[in-house]
Amino acid sequence: MKHIKLKASSNVYRLILSQDASLEDLFEEVKLFTNQLINVDRDKDQAKLVIESPNRILPESWRAEVQALIQRRAQWEVSFTSNVMSHERAVAWHKKVSLQVEFRSVLPGEILEVDGDILLVGDIHPAGYLRAGGNIFIIGRLEGIAHAGVDGDQEAVITGTFSDKSELRIAEGSYSIDHLLDDKSTYTPRSYYITERGQIDFTSVDQIQKIRPGIDRVVNQLPSYDDFVEE
């Protein structure tokens, strides 16, 4: 085969596509590859096949056709990876990993929603609602609702000063913190998080990194190789 190379390690196979070949030529060679899978036991062989297209974005229709072609021959888990991404994916990724800074208050009945982490310099008033895909850091009063990790991130934290009017939500859970409040709660910043037992707890802001080591990640860091893998 001129335009594709097969590499194998353990139970993972990598099919590397040439960036110079046309999609039509690549598809024909993938068909030849699948013909070699005709005797694979569909019930027993559970290998993973990663199709690598280093410097080209493969159309979704092409990927779907190739995936169906391969899985008709063998019950393999098929994924695609590339060193490049579409503009839409790049924008979505940037929003997710960037720390958004807002100098404002969240007013009663208002909803402020961000994709990743947020630093809010301002108050959340009663019936105000802040939703974040990542962590929430508040420099101000929290008298409304702060919901971190809205997409199910149990590792998310909420940092700020709190009172009996504060309502905290992390991932799918909603938590009362009344039993954790004391005289210092309204003026001493604390970080609330979910323990391994699924309970809410807090620690001082200078200790949260020991519990959540990744919280000090570099803002706008490049994603890892796995972030480019498309299922």
Oligomer: single chain
Low-confidence stretches: 222-231
Shape: elongated
**Do you know the CATH topology of the largest domain?**
Pectate Lyase C-like
Describe it.
- There is one protein chain.
- This protein is α/β, with parallel strands linked by helices and 231 residues long.
- The protein has 2 domains: 4-84; 94-211, Pectate Lyase C-like (3 Solenoid).
- It has helices at 23-35, 60-73, 87-97, 208-211; strands at residues 4-9, 12-17, 48-52, 77-81, 99-103, 111-114, 117-121, 129-132, 136-142, 145-148, 158-162, 167-170, 173-175, 190-194, 200-204.
- Strands 5-7-9-11-14-15 form a 6-stranded mixed beta sheet, with helices on one face. Strands 6-8-10-12-13 form a 5-stranded mixed beta sheet, with no helix packed on it. A 4-stranded mixed beta sheet has the order 1-2-3-4, covered by helices on one side.
- Helix 1 (23-35) runs parallel beside helix 2.
- This is Septum formation inhibitor MinC C-terminal domain-containing protein.
- It comes from Alloiococcus otitis ATCC 51267.
- Keywords: Cell cycle, Cell division, Septation.
- Interacts with MinD and FtsZ.
In short:
The protein has 231 residues and is an alpha/beta fold. The chain is built from four helices and 15 strands.
Keywords:
231 residues; alpha/beta; Pectate Lyase C-like; six-stranded mixed beta sheet; five-stranded mixed beta sheet; 4 helices; 15 strands; MinC; Septum_form_inhib_MinC_C
